Amino acid sequence: MTLTPKTNPKPKVAVYKFSSCDGCQLSILNLEDELLDLASAVDIAYFLEATRTVKPGPYDVGIVEGSVTTPHEAERIKEVRAECKFLVSLGTCATAGGIQALRNFARADEYARAVYAHPEFLQYLETSTPISAHIPVDLEIWGCPVNKGTVVEVLAALLQNRRPNFPPSPVCLECKRRGVVCVVVALGIPCLGPAVHGGCGALCPANGRGCYGCFGPSSAGNFSALIASMMPHDRYPNETANLLRSFSSHAPAFRAAADAALKAASGREAK
Predict the structure, then answer these.
(1) pLDDT tens by residue, 195-229
(2) What kind of architecture, by CATH, is found in domain 12-159?
(3) pLDDT tens digits, residue range 41-62?
(4) How far apart are CA 131 and CA 90, in angstroms?
(5) Cys-Cys with 214: which of 235, 247, 251, 261 at CB 3.0–4.6 Å?
(6) What is the pTM of this model?
(7) Residues 6 or more apart whose Cβ sits within 8 Å of residue 185
(8) For the CA atoms of the chain, what is the radius of gyration?
(9) Residues of the chain with CATH 3.40.50.700
(10) How far is Cα 34 from Cα 14, in angstroms, rounded to an integer?
């Protein structure tokens, strides 16, 4: 898709928030100098995090942060899809349900009763699901929060009528580029880096922690090998499975790998 329509020199862009922490929208605002260039190239018509000014749709590009967790959001996302020609899911909440998708492994009503004095006033869905579970999505940008440079690359690619250039390598390669010592080898800490898409700059391993998988599964990730190599390093029961059931837990590859890890752990206990 090209963002240079014949009748309007500035394509109209809308940024929406669903259930999330706003961190990915803040990543856009943190573009600073790049944001000025972006504002000169596109018409930011709807972005409540940045301005109360709202210009009516339809919009050339819609950027959606957050997952669908309420009946209202399930209906609202259909309206968003109808008013946007090109729709982008922004961040791990929008692409995989986010950290709130942990509710998918339990009963949401039990959480509600434990936390709220009057849970009968709440309106929520039993699950937290990505945007793509409800409507067609044209492009996904993973991350918790997203890499702001990736957002610029996506918008620039659309302006130039080309495919975005996403880093194809996993987090492990980013560790190598930064000279970060492997936390698995050096410290015996489980890490999802071999099977997680790069883009974070190896933030967690650089701080002595294993990768949590917030940039989503790598298309080339070997999850069977990951489980086999990481589970012996578990520092508490099911650590590897719990890592897979964190930020990107609703991603199919992570769900299947977590189930396989739990099954393997159960088999070992049976012996």
Answers:
(1) 999 999 999 999 999 999 999 998 888 999 999 99
(2) 3-Layer(aba) Sandwich (3.40)
(3) 889 999 998 888 899 989 999 9
(4) 10
(5) 247
(6) 0.88
(7) none
(8) 20
(9) 12-159
(10) 17
